[in-house]
Design goal:
Helix 3 crosses helix 5 (74-86). A two-stranded antiparallel sheet has the order 1-2. The protein is an all-alpha fold. The protein has a domain at 12-103: Orthogonal Bundle (Arc Repressor Mutant, subunit A). It has helices at 12-16, 19-22, 26-40, 57-65, 74-86, 101-123, 159-178, 191-194, 206-223, and strands spanning 90-92, 98-100. 49% of the residues lie in helices and 3% in strands. The relative contact order is 0.07.
Length: 226
Amino acid sequence: MSNDMPWTKWSWDDYDRDDALALCSGLAQTVWMRLMSIAARSPRYGYILIGGKSPSDQELTALLRGRIPDVKDVRVFRRCMNELFRHNVCKCDQDGTKFSARLMRDREKFNLKSRAGKISAERRGNKNLGKYASEQKPPSVGTPVPSRTKNQNTLSLSRRERESILRDDATEKQADALNGAPAFPAHHPPEQERRHPAAIRPGETREQHVQRMIDMAVELHYRRPN
């Protein structure tokens, strides 16, 4: 078979339901199977070629005689070919080269599926398809070609993540600015204003302190409303 299509699917169902082939004799069907094997290995898939040329009936008879004993001479071979031509199983092109329409259809399906597989793999970014790079459209003139930079492997953050980081960074700066600042307002009242009235004042003796407490009690008593 051809190098790019080394095998094909064979459907026994299609073979049994091929009414055109079923109208041919058993010998003609056997001859056709052998000819299809030659066409599948031909440089032009589907065409019956030997050495790149279309063989004559005598050459095909000599080739098939050792494999199909009933093909004794060229007359038997031509009778089988007439059956195949009459039922449109085998066809000829303008040059008289015999070919199989069935193999030609299989070839067309193979090319379509192969092309679809290549395109699908390229879309998935398969790196093993370097031999298909020529099928891609070249970049237009003036189109900047992306190049790798040192920061290409840096982490890509979303806008919400960047804003969150900026807020955290501002909070840290505010904390650094407040670090070491007093926890109370800058106003510091005099020590005597912060001291309790009943506490002993600096330099006050015990007797003075007792007398001051008595005076405060009397003053509070007279301030009390009747």
